[in-house]
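Case study 2.
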Amino acid sequence: MEKMEHIVLNEQQGDRVDKVISGLDHEWSRTQVQQWIKDSHVLVNGKPVKTNYKCNINDQIVISIPEPEELDVIPEEMDLDIYYEDKDVLVVNKPRGMVVHPAPGHMTGTLVNGIMAHCKDLSGINGVLRPGIVHRIDKDTTGLLMVAKNDKAHESLVNQLVEKTVTRKYKAIVHGVIPHDFGTIDAPLGRDSKDRQSMAVVDKGKHAVTHFHVLERFKDFTFVECQLETGRTHQIRVHMKYIGYPLAGDPKYGPKKTLHIDGQALHAGVLGFIHPRTNEYLEFEAPLPEDMEKLLHDLRKNH
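Prediction:
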């Protein structure tokens, strides 16, 4: 276990100890440092402290940097569709049918398995089964995901999600013809009391907002773009069902008689965020997958 020592400087007097330590190395995130303090890997003047300890001039801080935890996930070579990559961030276009991260009983074939074979440096904030994963999209949703390659980047991207500054636009084909061109769905989401595997609009659910606008109308379907203001589990799928326009192909929330597609017709097409290191705004766009393009082609032909 590597040790590092720091004597508190005049300008650091009164600062919290977690802030002082995370400022010593740009790769250390505050969340990571707080965990070290809780695990007594940090001593101030020879004694453990709490994360909110205010430093005094000449305090001696000794940090015992723990060895990185071995990941219990097997790297698997995959042909990943990578849109962007540098030493902090990776943006990848996930295909339909691929789970984002391993879970007990489902340890292989996930996006994380493929990313770990592609690059060894991923953030550890989400633990051993979800390294680097900042946000998720469902197994049968296609589209863009951002992945953090270190904890500092992870913390920045998560904060942007919390502050609602990340751009996330989805394209979807829904049942029914939406008469108005624009709409906002503001309805709280939580676990469905009748089915714990599903989400639903519930009184005491978490705040959830989806904006949408109509791109094209057909005889019995509508092609829409949805923009997430919040990012709750199954948000677009549940919100569109709630207003009476469930997603085509959705096995959980849609009607049984639907368009022929293997999973919901939902694509995370646009992703934009501020780069954690350069502070530059980056935005990426992935075209619709072939199966959704075919559906639109058939709908236009029949219409």
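The chain has a mean pLDDT of 89.
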